[in-house]
Amino acid sequence: MDYVAGTSIGALVGAACASGKIGSLEEFVRELDWKKVISHFDVVFPRSGLFDGRKISEAIREYVEPGDIEDLSVPFCAVSTDLATGSEVHIRQGDVIEAVRASISIPGMFTPVKRGEMLLVDGGLVNPVPTGVVRGMGADYVIAVDLGIGRIAEEPLQLVSEITPPGPRQRTSSTRKGASLATIRKKVMSADVPGLAQAKQWLARESVPNIFEVLMSSITVMEVQITEIRLVAEPADLLIRPRLSHIGFMDFHNADESIAEGYRAAKVSLEESRDADRLV
Hints:
It is built from eleven helices and eleven strands. The chain is α/β, with parallel strands linked by helices. Strands 1, 3, 4, 6 and 7 form a five-stranded mixed β-sheet that branches. It has a two-stranded parallel sheet with strand order 2-5. Strands 8-11 form a two-stranded parallel ribbon. A hairpin with a 5-residue loop joins strand 3 and strand 4.
């Protein structure tokens, strides 16, 4: 039996897949241009978000079967975050459009979604690639797509600067215990991801980023680190990582390139998985 779980944009794609309308969604994004992208964002006076999200919900309703999650042909879960408690929220019941809307509510961009006593925002704050969620739903073999890390950069951006004087430093027990996390961090910080790629562009042109750019890049860097740590604890059986670091958050009009890269990355991961099986 198949199961689908998704976070943020993954929740939208996952819901379309679970409702059997992934083809319609693909057709929609392939036809997007810059003007159409902008038309789906309803700007409001900055209170809890720049965009209200109603137009997004209307667009989702066209490409995800309206109704309750329980009625979908494939079991589905949208991952969100309770802003009040910081808790990871798994939405497996109720209106599917509201569930997706809650999962994609990037803090500062979209207004949060009120659900009972909870105030829900983007699930990427706690679990960007929910491998453990779908495994908990009953999946025996988990295929995960991570949009955060595209490839290892040839010249990684150095984001950590030491201000202590040079010289030998004694390792404490706490640093020894944190060695594994340090290894993960080193891998993360050497990755070419959307947020880091944008930072490199700022440095290259010596310009000051606007608040929108800072917000999106900050969230991206945070989500990448969370993903790497969580994938160590909850690994996927097949992990697909498309090279999309050069495509920005609002570049939905680059759907053809993104989809083609997704196919390429999936093919590479499948081939590597088969090679690994032969070595066992």
